[in-house]
Amino acid sequence: MDVSGRRLAKARLPEGVAGMARLHAIVGELAGDDADEVEVLVGIETDRGPWVAALVAAGYTVLVVNPLQAARFRDRLGVSGAKSDAGDAHVLADMARTHSHELRAVAGDTPQVQAVKVVARTHKTLIWERTRHTQRLRHALRDYFPAALEAFEDLDAADTLELLAKAPAPAQAARLTIGQISAALKRARRKNVADKAAAIQSVLRAEHLGQPEVVTGAYAASVQALIAVLNVLNAQVKTLQGQVEEHFGQHPAAEIVLSQPGLGQVLGARVLAEFGDDPTRYASAKARKNYAGTSPITRASGRKKAALARFVHNDRLIDALLTQAFSALGRSPGARAYYDRQRARGCGHNAALRQLANRLVGILHGCLKTGTLYDEATAWSHHAESLAA
């Protein structure tokens, strides 16, 4: 499409090198002898992958369009509700032509932070999967073996999985000896092994409601399968954590990120990975806060005006930032005082935590922009002066 909106060419390109070569050929043919003076804008609904990398490497200006933005723009061009790949391509091309100044170009992140992002996202995904499988295990035990839920506090812990794998049925669990239970607790490095082993055995040998033997056998087989999956997930979560720490430790900004209150190796890696390290991506602290989803949105109409929480955001980033804010309450006096002030104003816990996370994002932005480590007095001096006044 040219600057006037006239369609110059249309093609369905195959994936891989062949598709990219075909695209270059089409663009080269249209540009003719003025190829060096022609600017090519590309609208695309993703900011990662081989195609995006190849487009950026070719010198094209690649503009990322959120699918929600594309859907809203599509409604401007037609109200019939029709949707097709060809129609979506037309919408993206038209958006790149008319709204390039309002769209975000693909961030120029370094390969180092891209590597951190890959391992950090996979690590978090495995943790989410472990939580899902733990809940499935809990539901199964509740249906046929409620004594296990009373005996074991952490269903995904190594000692719990070992004992459940050895005795997945109530009758088998009742025959576990103190020695067997103690050995599992010792391997998991539990404290007060003797008392805990006695308590577990007592609960497992008490009377509880159950299921018929054939049903119990079916549940036991299902539970053993879930336990096998959880054992693999536990091992891989531990392995990926080492990869996260290794890649994050090699990044130049790691020291600044780790100086922030509430951020450790894993959480810091997630925050850095989701924000990226392109120094030009965020024009201001407000822009970073808006991307993080911690800053409120304003809805104003006539005399009505309300500030609301953002519900469209990067789920992985907001999860990491809220976790950081909660952790910072016990590590930063300034963060704790800021949170307490929000609660005193009538904010609930989640709202106050989100506002604290928003403030911490601004502090992180300033530290990264100036290349300085976090300083408690500097970070909260403005709020301390306001409170004193």
What does this structure look like?
The protein has a three-stranded mixed beta sheet with strand order 1-2-3. A two-stranded antiparallel sheet has the order 4-5. It is globular. It has 389 residues and is mainly α. The longest helix is centred in the middle third of the chain and has 37 residues, at 213-249. The mean pLDDT is 89. The protein starts with 16 loop residues before the first helix and ends with a helix. The chain has helices at residues 17-31, 50-57, 67-77, 85-98, 111-144, 146-151, 158-166, 170-174, 178-187, 193-205, 213-249, 254-258, 265-275, 285-292, 315-328, 333-344, 349-370, 376-388; strands at residues 41-44, 61-64, 104-105, 297-301, 304-308. It folds into three domains: 17-106, no CATH class; 113-247; 254-388, no CATH class.
Q: What's the gist of this structure?
A:
One of its GO terms (biological process) is DNA transposition. This protein is mainly alpha-helical and about 400 residues long.
Present the secondary structure layout.
Blueprint: H1 17-31, E1 41-44, H2 50-57, E2 61-64, H3 67-77, H4 85-98, E3 104-105, H5 111-144, H6 146-151, H7 158-166, H8 170-174, H9 178-187, H10 193-205, H11 213-249, H12 254-258, H13 265-275, H14 285-292, E4 297-301, E5 304-308, H15 315-328, H16 333-344, H17 349-370, H18 376-388
Parallel strand pairs: 1-2
Antiparallel strand pairs: 2-3, 4-5
Helix pairs in contact: 3-4, 5-11, 5-13, 7-9, 7-11, 9-10, 11-13, 13-15, 14-17, 15-17, 16-17, 16-18
Protein name: Transposase IS116/IS110/IS902 family protein
GO molecular function: DNA binding; transposase activity
Pfam families: DEDD_Tnp_IS110 (PF01548), Transposase_20 (PF02371)
